[in-house]
Write a structure and sequence with these properties.
Helix content: 10-25%
Membrane topology: Single-pass type I membrane protein
GO molecular function: signaling receptor activity
Number of helices: 20
Signal peptide: 1-22
CATH class of the domain at 603-779: Alpha Beta
Structural class: alpha/beta
Main location: membrane
Domain TIR: 836-972
Shape: elongated
CATH topology of the domain at 603-779: Leucine-rich repeat, LRR (right-handed beta-alpha superhelix)
CATH superfamily of the domain at 603-779: Ribonuclease Inhibitor
Distance between the termini: 87 Å
């Protein structure tokens, strides 16, 4: 302990002296040199104006002289006058050689230099004795990379303390007594001098020499006597010397040799006893001997300390089984890049400590089953670039410590199931560039099921078609697995959720056509919710580039993932790198980046998803984006609309049918399966009559047909439909009195811009129908009006006479009419509605329940005239479909009382109940709706179009009115209500524009239709199968003088 303290004190004292000395150094500039401080050293630039020499000084440690120009010489006093004292090392570079180095050092005040290095010196061909005179303290001399040819025999006479001499990369001609004054030498470097021989006495008496570099010489053999006195030599470097032959006793005197390099020579063989006397050898390197085809028996026998043998890049085609006999300490063997076809079964039997074995780049076709059984400590095995075709089950059974194995670039077709079972600590395996399918075991797990410590697996460039289950559920340490360049044709999200915290799966350049994320959200949610999911939880990174993806409905959810239109838990589990992934098919999407796809572009043939027939000569595709079935019958030579299946489907809920360019003469009828049609394209046919509008239709295209007239019933259905776009242009429309209803229909819908009015023209005049007023449509209107007036007067007289007769014989007339089923509408309402269960159904918002149950119901059910009421909280059947119950309640009630309140206006069910009651009222031709205004309701601003139209044409009751109960009871059913039939098609005066009044309260469809859908061609690609419309009619001709009426919208 005391000695340790003493040593520490001495080191601290010397360090302090060095620091003080360095601090005392003065960096002074002069006319000849400019001094600056550069980080850890001082730098002199001499002369300052045009620098020839740079002098770097680290006091106590180093003086470095670098000559910049050829003008540098030591005659002119260019260097500063310094007093540096003791310096450890002195360096020259690119300078003229001084006659005496010691004189040069004296000028700088330097002494006791231990290390001298002079490289790339100018004109240094003759190494004279004067160069080192006075350098008695010198221990290390480096004169490499000069042009030295001649060395004086007594050059080292005054440098007997030298322990290291480096004369490499010169052109030296050696003399026998060159080192006779340097008996302390431990290292000599004579490499790259192109020596063709070595004097026998060159190394005489160098008993302390430990390292000798002779590589890069040019002699074909070696005389063993040159090493006679090198009894302490540890390292001998003889590579790249063109040696062809070695005497058997060349190294006999090198009994302490531990490392020898004989690589890059021209051996054809070696003597059997080459290393017999060098029993302390630890490293033998003989790589790159292109003529070495065989090795003698027992070449390395009894080298019990041998740890490394390098025999790469030779021509070895055979190995003796006893080559490594008794090499019990051997740890590294490199036999790669030879021509071996097999390995003797017992060649490694004594190598229990072997850790690294390289047999790569040979011609090995098979291996004995027990060849590796004794290698219990082997950690790395390289068998890459051979011709192995199979791995037998017990080949690796003894490799219990194996961590890395490389079997790439073989011809492996199969791997037996238990081949890797005992490699329980295996971390890396490379099986790339083979022909593996990994199906030979008829199981869902891979041959690596038991290798739970695997971190990196390379299976690229094989014929694998699927990912085994064990990669997902058991490899918790796996970080990287490469499946690129295989035959995998689909990938499912469930194979991407792994137990490994951070795993990269490379699936690029496979044959993946489908990336199935169908159940990704469900699987992701089963892992937990996003808020509770830890940041270091498992996340799989997947590389999917350069795969022939089919861009159809099967990748719908994958595209949702790429667009981040999916549950955030999915990307938190799996990160897909698919920036360069493009569509391979269909043709209209080929080349488009998958990440740029719009969801509505993805479709599938119906037959791929469901066993359902498509109409003859038509094609049927499904679009998951809006769950639509698209039927394309364009140019199908049809003469009538095809019947459609009415069966329900789980993959679509509505249908679009395109029947353009056929010979169809009429539209569909009620029982042809068109109830769920939302788009009906009958353009460019021969249709001259259209009698029925499908109830869910949103787009009707009838342009370019033979339509000349639409009757009132069709117009009424169009008014009540969900249509958002109607195309009726390019038809031969009649423009006469009968067209007045149609003209009024067009004018009514003009603000909604739903109809292509700019293309609806009269067949005779080619004028726009909407620009004609009533007088132009009906020029004989005055005559018609007089005729109507006379007819009305006569009719009034007749009615008066009949009225008198009726009151005189009322009972007899009713009995006779009832008996003959004539004019039953004349019978009292009580008689017509006698089978209805309720007097009134009350439609209200649940927020108005107190008003209904506490005020309204008690007064009506228990008042002087009692009514049977239907309210949903009491009379509806639990569990039945709500819309069905609404219809049933309206149908079974003589009246529907609507509690019109702010909360009612925000209720979708309330609006549906009103629409149902209103429709029944119109259908029955009698007033069945009673509106009670309850609360603060602005009848001008708060109501939608349907309610507003009804309020304007019908009376209502307001809560708080003094006559509230009398008015309400009068509106409710009682015995003698006179029924009046609504008149139709009554025309009244229109000034300069046609104004048609219809007593039936119309219901503007803008307030009752669902959100607008995009009525542009469903896809935005020119060749997409859903782009059924070949021409657009959205822009009116210039001469029409109209602004565009139909605008596209986006869902």
């Amino acid at each position: 302990m005391d000695s340790y303290k003493l040593l520490t004190s001495i080191i601290f004292f010397l360090w302090t002296i060095c620091i003080i000395s360095a601090q005392n150094f003065q960096c002074n500039s002069s006319d000849t040199c400019h001094c600056t401080t550069v980080q850890t050293h001082y730098e002199y630039l001499c002369p300052p104006e045009e620098v020839d020499v740079v002098l770097k000084v680290e006091p106590q440690y180093l003086v470095d002289v670098q000559c910049i120009t050829d003008k540098s010489n030591w005659i002119d006093p260019k260097l500063p006058q310094l007093n540096l004292g003791y310096v450890e090392a002195f360096k020259f570079r690119n300078c003229p050689i001084p006659d005496s180095v010691s004189t040069f050092m004296d000028n700088l005040g330097v002494y006791k230099v231990k290390s001298l290095k002079a490289d790339y010196m100018k004109y240094f061909k003759h190494f004279k004795a004067s160069f080192l005179s006075g350098l008695s303290y010198l221990e290390s001399l480096t004169l490499s990379n000069n042009e030295i040819e001649i060395i004086d025999d007594d050059v080292f006479m005054g440098s007997s303390n030298l322990t290291e001499i480096d004369l490499g990369s010169n052109s030296i001609r050696l003399t026998p007594n060159l080192f006779k004054y340097t008996e302390k030498l431990t290292l000599i470097d004579l490499s790259m001098n192109n020596l063709d021989s070595i004097p026998d006495t060159l190394f005489h008496n160098l008993n302390n020499l430990r390292v000798l570099f002779l590589w890069g010489s040019n002699f074909t053999t070696i005389n063993g006597s040159i090493f006679r006195d090198l009894t302490s030599l540890r390292t001998l470097e003889l590579s790249h010397c063109h040696i062809q032959h070695l005497p058997y006793d060349a190294f006999y005197s090198l009994k302490n040799l531990t490392a020898i390099n004989l690589g890059m020579n021209e051996f054809e063989t070696l003597p059997a006893n080459t290393f017999a006397k060098s029993t302390l050898l630890e490293t033998i390197k003989m790589e790159n001997n292109p003529h070495l085809q065989s090795l003698p028996d027992y070449l390395f026998v009894n080298l019990k300390l041998l740890k490394t043998v390098g025999l790469k890049r030779c021509k070895l085609n055979f190995l003796p089984e006893n080559l490594f006999a008794e090499c019990t300490s051997l740890q590294n063997v490199s036999l790669g890049h030879n021509e071996l076809k097999t390995i003797p079964e017992n060649i490694f039997k004594d190598l229990s400590k072997l850790e690294n074995l390289d047999l790569s780049d040979n011609d090995i076709q098979n291996l004995p089953e027990k060849v590796f059984h004794s290698l219990e400590n082997l950690k790395r095995l390289n068998l890459a670039n051979n011709k192995l075709t199979t791995i037998v089950s017990k080949l690796f059974f003894g490799l219990l410590s194996l961590e890395i194995i490389n079997l790439s670039n073989n011809q492996l077709v199969s791997i037996q199931r238990y081949s890797f079972q005992r490699l329980t600590i295996l971390k890396e395996i490379d099986l790339s560039h083979n022909y593996l399918v990994l199906k030979e075991n008829f199981t869902t797990v891979s041959p690596f099921n038991d290798n739970l410590q695997l971190e990196k697996v390379d299976l690229s460039h094989n014929n694998i078609t699927r990912i085994s289950d064990d990669w997902i559920i058991s490899k918790i340490h796996l970080r990287e697995i490469d499946f690129s360049h295989n035959q995998i044709d689909n990938i499912n999200f469930r194979y991407l959720i792994t137990v490994s915290p951070r795993l990269q799966i490379d699936l690029s350049k496979n044959r993946i056509k489908v990336v199935n994320f169908t159940y990704s959200e469900k699987l992701a949610r089963s892992q937990g919710n996003l808020n509770s999911y830890p940041a270091d939880a498992p996340n799989t990174e997947v590389l999917l580039g350069e795969n022939p993806v089919i861009c159809d409905c099967h990748i719908f959810d994958f595209v949702r993932y790429l667009r981040r239109d999916i549950d955030p838990m999915v990307p938190s589990l799996v990160t897909v790198k698919a920036d360069s992934l493009t569509c391979q098919s269909p043709d209209y999407l080929k080349g488009i980046l998958v990440k740029d796809l719009e969801l509505k572009m993805l479709t599938c043939e119906l037959q791929q998803l469901e066993n359902r027939k498509c109409p003859q000569n038509c094609s049927c595709i499904v679009r998951p984006w809006d769950k639509a079935l698209i039927i394309n019958c364009i140019n199908a030579s049809l003469t009538h609309v095809p019947e459609l299946s009415s069966e329900t489907s789980s993959i679509f809920n509505h249908t679009e049918i395109y029947l353009a360019n056929n010979n169809i003469t009429s539209g569909p009828t009620v029982y042809m399966g068109y109830e769920n049609i939302t788009v009906l394209d009958l353009s460019s046919n021969s249709i001259d009559g259209f009698q029925w509008v499908p109830p869910k239709l949103e787009s009707l295209i009838l342009e370019n047909n033979n339509l000349s007239f639409l009757n009132f019933e069709v117009l009424d259905m169009l008014n009540r439909s969900m249509l958002k776009h109607i195309y009726l242009g390019r038809n031969p429309w009649d423009c006469n009195c009968e067209t007045a209803n149609f003209s009024q229909f067009l004018l009514t819908h003009l603000p909604q811009q739903q109809i292509d009015v700019k293309n609806i023209k009269c067949k005779q005049s080619r004028e726009l129908l909407v620009q004609l007023d009533f007088k132009e449509l009906c020029p004989n209107y005055r005559l018609l009006a007089v005729s109507v007036s006379v007819s009305v007067a006569l009719m009034a007289l007749l009615v008066a006479v009949l009225t008198i007769v009726y009151y005189r014989y009322e009972l007899e007339i009713k009995v006779w009419l009832y008996a003959h089923n004539i004019l039953l509408w004349w019978i009292t309402e009580e008689e017509i509605d006698k089978d209805m269960q309720y007097d009134a159904f009350i439609s209200y918002s649940h927020q108005d329940e107190n008003f209904v149950t506490n005020d309204l119901v008690p007064n009506l059910e228990k008042g002087p005239q009692r009514y049977d009421l239907c309210i949903h909280i009491r009379d509806w059947i639990a569990g039945e479909f709500i819309p069905t119950q609404i219809v049933n309640s309206v149908e079974k009630s003589r009246r529907t009382i609507v509690i019109l309140s702010p909360s009612f206006l925000s209720s979708c069910w309330g609006k549906m109940e009103f629409s149902t009651a209103h429709a029944k009222s119109v259908k029955d031709g009698r007033r069945r709706v009673i509106v009670i205004v309850y609360g603060d309701v602005d009848l001008e601003k708060d109501l939608n179009d349907e309610l507003k139209a009804y309020i304007k044409t019908n009376t209502y009751v307001k809560w708080g009115d003094p006559w509230f109960w009398d008015k309400l009871r009068y509106a409710l059913p009682h015995s003698k209500i006179k029924m009046t039939r609504k008149s139709q098609n009554i025309m009244i005066n229109m000034n300069d524009k046609l104004d048609l009044l219809n007593n039936i309260p119309s219901t503007p469809n803008s307030g009752s239709t669902p959100p607008a859908l995009d009525m542009e061609p469903p896809l935005l690609l020119k060749d997409h199968p859903l782009n059924f419309r070949s021409n657009e009619i959205l822009t009116p001709p210039a001469e029409a003088g109209l602004k565009p009426l139909l605008m596209t919208s986006t869902k």
